[in-house]
Amino acid sequence: MAGGEHEVNGVHDEGALEGGRVGGDQARCENSDQDGSKSTSNHSMFSVQFAQKLLAEVLGTFLLIFAGCAAVAVNLRTGGTVTFPGICITWGLAVMVMVYSVGHISGAHLNPAVSFAYATCGRFPWRQVPAYAAAQVTGSAAASLTLRVLFGSAREHFFGTVPAGSEVQSLVMEFIITFYLMFVISGVATDNRAIGELAGLAVGATVLLNVLFAGPISGASMNPARTIGPAIVLGRYTSIWVYIAGPVCGAVAGAWAYNLIRFTDKPLREITKTSSFIRSTRRS
């Protein structure tokens, strides 16, 4: 869901995770991998390096969805032993560890809405969005299939997302919480003044917070792949459009909102080097 500014196959990319992530390390890794091979990578998107990125997205999304949805499934089957706060913590921790695990390889988007939002801002190549989205949905579907084999497909044990109230209520909620998530991702993963090493912690904490208050309303998906995977495997497509339109629109709005308030590319120490930033703004 987050990452640093770099070049991918000759295309400028400052992409994510919901991701988030570990921007500086990713940029250095990308640059070192491309030395001596830029001329060939420019001609074809499907390089070994790109295949590795897709595999990282498949595995990262699989592990994220497996952990989060397993917490839901186990909680339903055991009468609430995991508890709702436990589910929230599981989702937050799963996002955090995946950011630190694959963020330096693929950017750890793990979310089609994040990939799409970065593309609209010019921070991720449009031509790679379909492949990333397919990898993310594949990982989610594989995780959901694994959970179905382990826990069955009883309707009362559904670990996907459906609105608790009206579709409009859940649509608005999904838009807001995905806006929140993407705004944080953009701040910690694409701004060189942020502390990149804390990107995973910040993004994971945002997911935990969102699930705490939005989970009982919409299921707190924030991620089309998180909803589409269980829907495909369990054959339950109730209000699935809510979990595609809400997160995609929210992520795009969140990414652009951060772009609007981005003050400068200069580090904070340069902004405040000669005089107080507050005093300078007062004079103006």
Tell me what you see in this structure.
This protein is mainly alpha-helical. It has one domain (6-30, 47-261): Up-down Bundle (Glycerol uptake facilitator protein), CATH 1.20.1080.10. The chain has twelve helices and two strands. Helix 6 (129-151) packs across helix 9 (224-234) and helix 7 (167-190) runs parallel beside helix 10 (242-261). The longest helix is centred in the first third of the chain and has 30 residues, at 48-77. The chain starts with 5 loop residues before the first strand and ends with a helix.
Quick structural summary:
This protein has 284 residues and is mostly helical. Helix content is 66%, strand content 2%. The chain has twelve helices and two strands.
